[in-house]
Design the sequence.
């Protein structure tokens, strides 16, 4: 019995020595710093690998966008909500560059330059944001992105131009081409001025001009070819279509092309200049 106990003791000692001789497994690298995490997130979005981007998010991550995207409150809480936003960015062919990075502990400040279809279409890409990102254990905990002042000015100017473009097209299509005079109360300023033929002042004069046009040319549609903006003035190049058939399909001498200038103030047409063959004063 004593011999068995001795053998057991020796066996345990040998096991202990063997365990001590086994090299300690290499420790995992420390979690990535917050700048590396956010770069990895946006690289995954750019690659349209949303699963990879989501793997870098904490379950309770919070993403804040200022100002918020249209129709949203700009705050995304939780992995699934943020993942959904990244899917939107990927669908819009989002591409990013993160610069001017400063890291302090688990907090990183940086500037994000972001290209996406919507910003490219508006002619203001890249969008620029100043951001604060916090990461813990290699996971993004929170991210806040705010438009820079410079980009905000470009964005607001572009939005105003888009609104003016839509206004001009509605006036030409729904009022002049379709004869919806009631819409003039919404889209045309009460103190509207037409500076060239037919010269006139006031919204009522505008309506009379449209009514006269619709009486003389009831089957005519104004087709906008191009609009160029100079501040709050829209330079409109257009031609006419009759009964749905473009005048471009008729002999060249029968094609009538217009050049209009519309000035937009406070979301309404305020002034008009007309340069075309119909102007008897030119």
Sequence:
């Amino acid at each position: 019995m004593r011999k068995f106990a001795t053998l057991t003791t020796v066996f345990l000692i040998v096991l202990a020595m063997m365990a001590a001789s086994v090299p300690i497994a290499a420790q995992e690298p420390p979690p990535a710093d917050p700048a590396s995490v956010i770069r990895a997130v946006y690289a995954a979005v750019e690659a349209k690998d949303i699963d990879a981007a989501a793997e870098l998010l904490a379950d309770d991550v919070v993403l804040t966008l200022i100002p918020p995207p249209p129709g949203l409150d700009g705050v995304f809480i939780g992995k699934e909500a943020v993942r959904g936003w990244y899917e939107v960015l990927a669908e819009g062919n989002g591409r990013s560059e993160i610069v001017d990075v400063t890291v302090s502990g688990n907090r990183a400040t940086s500037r994000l330059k972001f290209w996406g279809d919507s910003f490219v279409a508006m002619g203001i890409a890249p969008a620029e944001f100043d951001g604060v990102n916090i990461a813990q254990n290699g996971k993004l905990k929170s991210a806040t992105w705010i438009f820079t002042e410079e980009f905000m000015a470009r964005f607001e100017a572009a939005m105003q131009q888009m609104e003016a473009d839509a206004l001009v097209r509605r006036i030409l299509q729904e009022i002049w081409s379709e004869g919806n005079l009631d819409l003039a109360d919404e889209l045309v300023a009460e103190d509207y001025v037409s500076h060239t033929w037919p010269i006139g002042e006031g919204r009522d004069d505008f309506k009379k001009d449209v009514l006269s046009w619709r009486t003389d040319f009831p089957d005519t549609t104004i087709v906008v070819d191009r609009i160029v903006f100079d501040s709050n003035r829209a330079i409109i190049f257009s031609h006419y279509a009759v009964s749905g058939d473009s005048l471009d399909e008729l002999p060249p001498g029968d094609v009538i092309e217009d050049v209009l200038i519309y000035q937009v103030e406070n979301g309404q047409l305020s002034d008009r200049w007309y340069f075309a063959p119909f102007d008897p004063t030119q």
Summary: The two ends are 127 Å apart (CA to CA). Confidence is low (pLDDT under 50) at residues 1-28, 246-253. The CA atoms of residues 221 and 241 lie 5 Å apart.
